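dumping this here before i forget
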Amino acid sequence: MALTGLDIYKLLPKTNCGDCKSPTCLAFAMRVAQKQASLDQCPHVTAEAKEKLGAASAPPIQLVTIGTGDAKIVIGNETVMFRHEETFHHPAGVAVTVSDELSEADIAARCDKIAKLVFERVGTRIAVDMVCVMNDSNDPAKFAAATKLVAEKCPKALVLGSENAEALKAAVAVCADKRPLLCGATAENHQAVAALAKEKNCPVVAKANGLEALADLTQKISAAGVKEIVLYAGEQGLRQTLEDLTKARRYALKKTFRPLGYPQLTCVLGNDDPMLAVLNAATFMAKYSGVIVTDMIEPWQLMPLLTVRMNIYTDPRSPIQVEAGVHRVGEPNAKSPLLVTTNFSLTYYTVEGDVESSKVPTNILVVDTEGTSVLTAWAAEKFTTDQIAKAMKKNEVEKLAPHKKIIIPGLIAVESGKLQEETGWEVVVGPKESSGIPSYLKANWGS
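structure:
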């Protein structure tokens, strides 16, 4: 039976030192009981208390590390069913497949294409971060050769896809230092695969059809000494896979059912409809895959999936922000326009992109609105005359724009008169939508 917060509190040092980042020991005990904190965050807890509290403090979903160094992927250890309850902490890995039946030249070419699946969105780099080597040949030697080549050509976290224990052993021998994910252990081979995973300190995928069979299998693998396990309930169609993903998460978080308390893997392979493949993968990303293995490789397919991942794993309590101040687009001079906007990253980068497309060198004054968009910030009184005027003064914009004209978003046109009176500047109302910026700047500020 799980311990209550008061049970846990009785075994803590009760110093209220704050080293655990909680204000009091009682608050920390409550967080541990709710699986929102782990006992090792308290540096003063005794060994005896650790032993008694081990079960209560263990995370409901096991933390699993795949890869090493810059290529390391960490999944699991999630504490909530829904993102708005807190946040999702460890972004899912996206693994693109490489078959060991390809020629060396084709493997190298595919690895090169995977390495280039890197995009920039709202100032943030998003990329495919894993490669799954598939043992389609069922030949240990070919599998090992392909794995070695992939490891050399594409420095990303590795997934080794084979149910052949000998093939996995051969492949791990050439990449053990990269700590690959062994996919996978089945009811038939789990003893050999678990022994290999334990020997090489690698995480392993438990593969079974359905959650009941998975729960039985994970207990056997765990008993063999492997603690970092990933669940794979098989390819059962979108509806059944989604049900299994959700049920496993719910059993782990709500029932503290340890045999299913692991991150999950899904596969999107061999789909004749490339658009449907993207939609299926995005669905699994949202609920609740920890690793998505796919044979999709086109940028137009992977960029939407990575964008979904970025959005889902952004902390809703902390909007992505850009630095407040003056940002230069092109090489503006004393005659260049001065725009003002908020520091919400999506707003800023949309404005910046539209300014760039106008080819008009421009200064953009970014006001600190705590990461909120134009209308939201204005409604919350974070983007009104007072805030804009303070930002203008702080950044000494008169030195950048001696013409003393400032362009405000059309959505806050109501602020124009008051801002003009307070600053003495000519306040120009710009387009309501950012998409209107290019034509506006060309018409009014173009050379």
